[in-house]
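[recover] target loaded
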């Protein structure tokens, strides 16, 4: 696996695919600079070598050229994070891009305009990729968030750099962290899978059953399993067409000697609202008109015992509707257990939009071993798929 440290960038132009698809407010201010900050170590290394940097990214889902999606809006924030005045090219290919990159000197950083202003980017167009490739000497992919897409700038471009392509520090760290769970884990290994639907996690479950010792199932998925086992779930979210699938998963887990842990009690509410009436009930006896929205205290005690005894922990999906304060307790408690286990030496990997949002919201991000930057990309790796953006660098 070639990384930045296999190259000296002195007097070289590094063409870096970054994921600067950052959230903006109505005045085009960046409201979360995490993705920019995550790319800084890669950019710093290249500049320290005496190279120059050309940044490529997308922003949003524009239909053709739309000013609201122009990357010029984020130039000031990138300059602030990097501590370098970032130049901007108002196109990503063609005369403007060529002229600005040709004039780029060692130690300078240039940001190209939004790649998705061209349909060719998402189509993985060969000619468009070739034009992008002509701008740099070495291709660096540091965009894990788009590594599962075979787009021009993430995958197709790599063929124009047969011996001059590598992973940036962020992408290398993502691969390394996932491999620590999937390939080089220290046992016991526990996967915590939450979220609302079994159907969205089925391939993940099937792929990681061979790699884990314990699996904690929480969130809305709980109720499909409980109903499959003959329990009453009231008005809780439930995939009635996946009941047999839930039983098959439990059977397969037993065959593989994987211990499945499902909530035994839940916080139920008489409405999907922060102000609803609530009570704690046996997970198999949810009354009609009530729905399960968080894990109960006995369930959390059980989960804590598993987490504290684990050496490798994967967390993907919350235990309840943590966006509402009344139903956030389970997710916060789980996060604290994982943080405590991590402090005692366990390796913890958090991934998936909701889990990442939760650890950030509750101030737990720095207490985890690694928090992934890519939701869809991470899920596909957990499903056992080879991501095209990664394969293109390894090829």
């Amino acid at each position: 696996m070639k990384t930045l440290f296999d190259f000296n960038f002195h007097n070289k132009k590094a063409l870096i695919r970054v994921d600067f698809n950052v959230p903006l407010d109505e005045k085009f201010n960046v409201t979360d600079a995490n993705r920019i900050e995550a790319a800084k170590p890669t950019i710093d290394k290249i500049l320290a070598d005496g190279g120059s940097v050309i940044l490529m990214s997308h922003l949003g889902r524009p239909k053709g050229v739309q000013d609201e999606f122009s990357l010029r809006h984020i130039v000031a924030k990138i300059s602030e994070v990097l501590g370098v005045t970032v130049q901007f090219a108002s196109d990503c290919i063609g005369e403007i891009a060529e002229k600005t990159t040709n004039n780029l000197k060692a130690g300078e950083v240039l940001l190209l305009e939004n790649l998705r202003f061209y349909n060719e980017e998402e189509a993985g167009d060969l000619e468009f990729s070739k034009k992008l490739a002509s701008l740099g000497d070495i291709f660096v992919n540091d965009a894990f968030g788009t590594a599962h897409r075979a787009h021009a700038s993430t995958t197709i471009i790599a063929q124009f750099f047969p011996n001059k392509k590598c992973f940036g520090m962020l992408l290398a760290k993502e691969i390394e962290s996932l491999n620590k769970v999937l390939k080089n884990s220290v046992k016991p290994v526990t996967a915590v899978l939450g979220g609302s639907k079994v159907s969205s996690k089925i391939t993940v479950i099937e792929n990681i059953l061979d790699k884990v010792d314990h699996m904690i199932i929480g969130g809305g998925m709980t109720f499909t399993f409980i109903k499959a086992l003959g329990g009453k779930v009231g008005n809780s979210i439930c995939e009635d067409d996946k009941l047999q699938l839930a039983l098959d998963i439990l059977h397969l887990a037993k065959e593989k000697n994987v211990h499945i842990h499902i909530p035994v009690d839940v916080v139920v509410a008489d409405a999907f609202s922060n102000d609803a009436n609530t009570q704690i009930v046996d997970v198999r006896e949810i009354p009609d008109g009530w729905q399960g929205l968080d894990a109960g205290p006995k369930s959390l005690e059980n989960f804590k015992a598993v987490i504290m005894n684990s050496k490798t922990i994967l967390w993907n999906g919350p235990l309840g509707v943590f966006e509402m304060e009344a139903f956030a307790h389970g997710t916060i408690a789980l996060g604290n257990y994982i943080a405590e286990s991590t402090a005692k030496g366990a390796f913890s990997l958090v991934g998936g939009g909701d889990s990442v949002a939760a650890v950030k919201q509750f101030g737990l991000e720095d207490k985890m071993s690694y928090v992934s930057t890519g939701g869809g990309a991470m899920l596909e790796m957990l499903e056992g798929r080879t991501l095209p953006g990664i394969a293109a660098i390894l090829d």
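[recover] notes: The first helix runs from residue 34 to 49.
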